[in-house]
């Protein structure tokens, strides 16, 4: 599978999608507690959970040429 970077135009080859953390919370117990407290109690639980889940599933791939974290056209296979 190939992903196209909009920053530099480089096409990165990869075997599958890599999911990288988009937030600044560490992947530990207290990081999860902080994320839960911030997103649920402070921001508010009125956000649409389906959209939130889709946003958490957003796939981010690092470009090998310019080290940009945002690569578009993911999942599109170039034939």
UniProtKB/TrEMBL annotation:
Domain of life, source organism: Bacteria
This protein's name: Uncharacterized protein
Species annotation: Vibrio gelatinilyticus
């Amino acid at each position: 599978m190939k992903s196209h970077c909009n920053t530099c135009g480089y096409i990165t080859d990869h075997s599958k999608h890599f999911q990288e953390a988009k937030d600044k919370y560490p992947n530990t117990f207290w990081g999860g507690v902080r994320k839960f407290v911030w997103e649920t109690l402070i921001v508010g639980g009125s956000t649409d959970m389906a959209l939130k889940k889709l946003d958490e599933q957003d796939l981010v791939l690092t470009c090998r040429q310019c080290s940009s974290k945002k690569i578009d056209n993911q999942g599109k296979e170039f034939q």
